[in-house]
Design a protein that fits this description.
This protein is an alpha/beta fold. The protein has helices at 30-38, 42-55, 74-77, 83-95; strands spanning 2-3, 24-27, 61-64. It is built from 4 helices and 3 strands; from the N terminus they run ββααβαα. It has a 3-stranded parallel β-sheet, with no helix packed on it. The two termini are 23 Å apart.
């Protein structure tokens, strides 16, 4: 079961992971890494992903997302409307270890303040 611990990351999960409370959590740190990736900061993103992947297993899964109803849209808030960068971030999202979660409308480029809320 994948749940939400607002602001949660693999290192800050409120004790939800590895305790049978949740199998996975939304990864609120992933969109920052995706933004760095679109800016060409490949080495720092590689380090982040390697560290994250070492900690993920079947009792500690992370679900990477770019946008949600709780946050402003990735397209407008992180990459200033650049749909090319959104596609690059989405490629990272679906290929990184974990569970990619695509917020409704994101695949169409919907973005803005709390997009879709």
């Amino acid at each position: 079961m994948t749940g939400e611990y607002f602001g949660g990351t693999i290192d800050s999960n409120g004790g939800m992971l590895g305790t049978s409370q949740m199998d996975g959590l939304l990864d609120f740190g992933f969109n920052d890494a995706a933004k760095d990736f679109t800016d060409g900061k490949v080495n720092s993103v590689d380090s982040y992903l390697q560290e994250r992947e070492l900690k993920i297993d079947n009792t500690k899964m992370m679900a990477q997302f770019l946008s949600s109803h709780d946050e402003d849209g990735f397209l407008s808030n992180y990459v200033d409307g650049d749909k090319g960068k959104l596609k690059i971030a989405a490629a990272l999202q679906i290929t990184a270890k974990g569970q990619p979660v695509i917020y409704y409308g994101e695949e169409l480029g919907t973005s803005g303040k709390n997009a879709g809320a």
